[in-house]
Amino acid sequence: MRRLLALLLLWTTCSLADPPVLRFSVAESWSMPLMRVEGEQPVEGLLFDLMQAIAREVGARPEYHVLARLRLQQAMDDGDIDVRCYVSAQWFNDRPGHFVWSIPLFHQRDVLVGQPNDSALTRPEQLPQQAIGTVLGYTYTTLAPLFEQGQLRREDSRSQELALQKLHIGRYRHAVSNELSLQWFNHRLPAEQRLQILAVLEEQALGCMVRNDPALPTQGVLRALVRMKESGEIERITRRYGVTGYREGVSAARP
What we know:
This protein is of the alpha+beta class. Helix content is 31%, strand content 29%. The chain has helices at residues 2-16, 46-58, 72-77, 144-149, 160-168, 179-186, 218-231, 233-240; strands spanning 21-27, 36-38, 41-44, 61-67, 83-87, 99-101, 106-114, 130-135, 139-140, 152-157, 174-178, 196-211, 253-254. Strands 5, 6, 7, 11 and 12 form a 5-stranded antiparallel β-sheet that branches. A hairpin with a 2-residue loop joins strand 2 (36-38) and strand 3 (41-44). Helix 2 packs across helix 7.
């Protein structure tokens, strides 16, 4: 009888135990439609919805760590985060051996953006010497030679949205943006004020990375992402935020 009661108590205790925690990284440079953060916690956005769905699929409690983009690699090395999403293998000189890659989830373009009255397609090397709007901590592979030559100068902002706001008010004549953020920024403006795409700089496939740790449901997360991709849930999440004309894999900019 005592043995039965002990087993029952153990079963009850395990049933009431907290679910495992999955620690997701959130880059503070993200802006809508990727993520909106209030009080150091994400509250909406397509990546927020994606992370919530991942945690739900594996029965885990999501925990969000908002970090400066330049601190993300150190957080991975220190074991402070378990899942990092919206990332490309091309952003790493050496692929982190303690993380496992998901399938590609998104495709998006990095574009050169101009003022509303700019309509002619422009190659970056055709631009006159000037400052150009960029995001702090991003590396722009296509533009790197022009920065090194001094033809273009970076004017960094802490987020993509802020870089586009500065372009909109005329702080500079051109900026670099991912296509998602540009669409989100433009949809709030009258047609005559919308920023224009002048050139496509680069495009890449993006996915998630999951820490390879026996204490984590690593394979469960990877399988969940396959199911979400194949079922169309990834596409539904992007459309929830009004993203149109968007092909799923993103950016020439890399941390």
